[in-house]
Design goal:
Layout lengths: L1 E6 L7 H10 L3 E6 L14 H14 L3 H17 L3 E5 L6 H9 L3 E6 L14 H6 L5 E4 L2 H9 L5 E3 L22 E6 L6 H11 L5 E4 L9 H8 L7 H9 L1 E6 L12 H7 L3 E5 L2 H6 L7 E3 L2 H12 L2 H18 L3 H16 L15
Parallel strand pairs: 1-2, 1-3, 3-4, 4-5, 5-6, 7-8, 7-9, 9-10, 10-11
Helix pairs in contact: 1-14, 10-13
Length: 368
């Protein structure tokens, strides 16, 4: 089967690992990288600063000649490559008529948006192209349960849940982290939001008996920013193998959930146990369905409980290690690697759209 993957391609956890898994399963993959239409880093023009600003503005506002070229070029690439499936990650820049043109070429066009296009997080109009395109896709995967009904109301022909995942090449245990620059008792690696995480972070910073570390973007917007800068300076935002090292360097890894994205689980629910690290998470019924409380994961329901459980598990190492090990075993048993999600996509294509595909039905990879 021939797959055209459309994504901004500025991350190592979305389209790139999917492309690797699809190829491992014997399929032909072509990458369409949206960022190239907004990249002016190699411009030598004296006006390069203005060009960079203009392209950033077009990317942010989803409008302008770069967006038009992106849509035109995508259709041209699809006409040459003749994909069986076009898989669109997020779809922030694709016009409805572009999606329709891809379908008229004979491709099955599927979208998956890991963000919440119906939530309050984004500025007005950020998802207008995606939302207008929803009725034109053959199928739209949702990242969260809440979006399933919202996508149906927006006109989706078909929709199902496709959760996030971990990537086995990146998220894995590291045995020796003795000299890691990220070492801590407990850490949180994630962005700032004006929610309960601020109160929790403040409490952890104030606890003199807990070695706490914070990493991630946007914390300069927090009311804690002066204290954060005084304690750590500019916070790093580790990615890829550095992110995994930071996870493995903590005895306990924290999970907070985005209210602005209305999350009831997060990618960290899979990345942390994949690294073999103990999870201490905000409670939600969905995460409690994925991992058994106090056996595979530990939950907190208040800042007071967060501190109590942090202190308890820091002084009960054997119990902490046992829960971390059980969490990893559950993860591997249930199958939450990106390859498992790729198989879910291939299975959908085979069962729902097999008759539409040119040539043989798609071969669903069975080996992980």
């Amino acid at each position: 089967m021939r797959l055209l993957l459309v994504e901004h391609w500025d991350s190592d956890v979305y389209a790139e690992p999917y492309a690797r898994r699809f190829r491992e399963y014997g399929h032909e993959v072509l990458a369409f990288k949206e960022y190239t239409f907004f990249d002016s880093s190699r411009s030598l023009s004296p006006r390069s600063r203005w060009i960079q600003w203009a392209k950033r503005a077009q990317a942010k506002c989803r409008v302008g000649p770069s967006v038009r070229r992106l849509n035109q070029h995508l259709v041209g690439i699809a006409r040459e490559f003749v994909p069986d499936v076009v898989f669109v990650f997020r779809g922030a820049f694709l016009w409805p008529r572009t999606v329709e043109r891809l379908r008229t070429l004979g491709s099955v066009v599927i979208a998956w948006n890991n963000d919440d296009p119906f939530g309050p997080r984004h500025y007005l109009g950020a998802w207008r192209h995606f939302l207008r395109s929803v009725p034109h896709y053959d199928f739209v995967f949702a990242y969260r349960q809440t979006n399933l009904e919202e996508l149906r109301r927006a006109g989706a022909k078909g929709t199902d849940l496709l959760r996030s995942s971990y990537v086995r090449e990146i998220n894995r245990p590291i045995e020796n982290v003795k000299d890691s620059p990220y070492s801590s008792d407990i850490s949180f690696i994630g962005h700032w939001e004006p929610d309960c995480r601020e109160e929790a972070i403040a409490a952890l910073m104030a606890a003199s008996d807990i070695d706490f570390r914070l990493f991630g973007p946007l914390w300069e917007r927090s009311k804690l920013a002066p204290a954060i800068m005084a304690r750590w300076g500019q916070l790093p935002s580790p990615r890829g193998s550095e992110y995994n090292l930071a996870l493995c360097s903590a005895k306990i890894a924290l999970i907070f959930l985005s209210r602005l994205n209305r999350d009831t689980y997060t990618r960290r629910c899979f990345e942390i146990p994949a690294a073999g690290v103990f999870m201490l998470s905000e409670f939600t019924p969905e995460i409690a369905h994925l991992f058994e409380e106090d056996k595979e994961i530990v939950f907190f329901r208040s800042t007071v409980e967060l501190l109590e459980k942090t202190r308890y598990y820091l002084t009960h190492e054997e119990e902490r290690r046992r829960i971390a090990k059980a969490g990893r075993e559950r993860l591997l048993r249930d199958g939450h690697e990106v390859g498992d999600r790729a198989i879910q996509i291939l299975h959908l294509v085979e069962t729902r759209f097999g008759q539409r595909l040119r040539g043989d039905s798609p071969r669903v990879g069975s080996e992980m």
